[in-house]
Each structure stands twice: as structure tokens, then as C-alpha cells.
Amino acid sequence: MQEARVAIIGAGHIGSALVRGFLETGRCKREHLMATIPSEEKAQQLREELGIQVESDNRKACGWARVIVFCVKPQVMASVLQEVADTVSEDKLVTSVVAGIPTQFIEGCLGKQVGVVRLMPNIAVLSRQGATGMCRGRFVRDEDVEYVRNLFSSVGMVMEVSEDLMDAVTGLSGTGPMYIFQVIEGLSDAGVKVGLSREKAYALAVQTVLGAALMARDLGEHPGQLKDLVTSPAGTAISALHLMERSGFRAILMDAVEEAARRSAELGKLHTLGSSD
Asked: For 176-264, which CATH class?
């Protein structure tokens, strides 16, 4: 499988970031990668940037590849699957990063017992610091799952969950960078309000978020314990924390994740209902 041909169907932001990660970490050779994108102008740009085959023909790419990665929009997933179904034999490995689309739906559209792995990366794969949830379909082999895990670890961490938790993954980590971008923007605005230049406020906000995240990852302690390291008696941090608690900051985050997970499930039903046996 290490020398398998890989086709990225839909080389947008996520798809092209995956290609870069696969290449930069040596997971794939250039001659073993192909991507598709409808625009010839963008196709030519990607050919020049990445040095791989880029086509507009999804059927050609799926027929050529041993491993297929679907990166299209949820609303077109059914039509793309139906378009390429006869080119996808049971000896191929199908993966999908399409939000809300279950493995059983993909299997049904393809009409055969093909191995399917569903993934939900987030936009941080652009910096190879993504968080990707992964689940397996009914017919996929253990060795193929491990291949996918290794492939996608080139753009960040990969965590396997049961499929019923994929909407939760979407709500938490899939949508999660947006929450953090809001935090960074809010901290930057606050820095400007208390007298810092925009440039300095932004740089301090970004580094603060990065440093806190690395501490949480590397120390492995409960965030409550880490919070206690900062909140000294009668200090600035405990005063700020009081205001955040009174304003329901944590409850807002919980509500946001719950709403995003609900919407993920809703989108899955919307784009699969009536499209497959």
C-alpha cells in the first residue's frame, strides 16, 4: 500500500493541503498522486505548485488510483459517487472527508462491498497541525485503516471513533478552529482597546493561544489545574475569570459545539435522504 496510487477528488483548500502533507512527509511520491478540480486555470496552478497530475475528469482519477480521497462539497457527493461508481472496484480503498456523509451511504452509492474510511479533518491541516476524526465502514480491512491513519497523520493527529460520534467530532474539532479564531480576534481587539498597537496585540494573542495549547498538550494536566497555575490570590487572572464565569463563557462554547454537531447531523440527512438505497 505504501506505493499505492492516490487520487484526491476535489483539490480545494483541504484537498490541496492533504496533497502537500502527503508529499512533504514522504507518504506519497509525486508520480503516485493525482488530483481533480473543475477549473482548468486552478488545475494548471496546482500542477505548477505541486508537480502532480491534476485533471478535471473524476472518472479518470478514480480508475487510475488504488486509494481515493473524496474532498467535495456535501451537496454534490451523491452525484460524484454515482458518476464514478463503475470505476471503483472492490479492491480499491475509498476515503472521504465530506462532512455529514456516512460510510453506509457511500457504500450504497458505489453499489459494492468496497472498503470505506470516513474522516473529518479541520482547516489546521493547512499548517499540518490538523485534528482528524476517523471511522471505518463495514467492509474495510484493518490494514487499510492503518494505512489511512498513517497517511493522514502527515497533516496532524488522527483519532479513531465510532461513526455515531463523527458529528460530535465535527462540532468540536472540525469547527473548532473557528472558535479559536474568534478568541484570537477578541483578544487582539481587547489589546487594542487597552492601548497596544494592532500588530503587537495580534502577535501576543496568537502566541498566547499557541503557548497555552502546547502547555495543555505537553503537560497532560486537567485544564482546571493549568488555570490554577495562573490565578494567583487577588490577582488579575482570577478577576478576569470571575467576569468570564459570570458571562457564561464556557456555556457559550458548549452550546456552540452542540449546535455545530446538530447541524452536521442535519446536513448529513439533507444530502443523503433519497439519494441511495
From this structure: mainly alpha
CATH topology of domain 6-162: Rossmann fold (3.40.50)
Compute the radius of gyration of the chain from its Cα atoms. Answer: 21
Report pLDDT digits (tens) over 50-63.
999 999 999 999 99
* DSSP-derived secondary structure for 168-235: HHIIIIISHHHHHHHHHHHHHHHHHHTT--HHHHHHHHHHHHHHHHHHHHHH---HHHHHHHH--TTS
The whole-chain average pLDDT of the chain stands at 94
CA–CA separation, 108 vs 170, rounded Å?
23
The answer to whether the Cα torsion of 176, 180, 185, 189 is positive or negative is: positive
State the pLDDT at residue 274: 57
Beta-ladder partners of 55 = 36
Q: Rounded CA gap, 17 and 33, in Å?
A: 13
Cα(56)–Cα(95) distance, integer angstroms? 19
Q: pTM of the full predicted structure? A: 0.90
What confidence category does residue 2 fall into, taking pLDDT thresholds of 50, 70 and 90? low
Residue 116 to residue 145: CA distance in whole angstroms = 9
Q: Any idea where the domains of the chain sit in the sequence? A: 6-162, 176-264
Residue 266 near residue 259, CB atoms below 8 Å: no
The tens digit of pLDDT for each residue in 169-204 reads 999 999 999 999 999 999 999 999 999 999 999 999
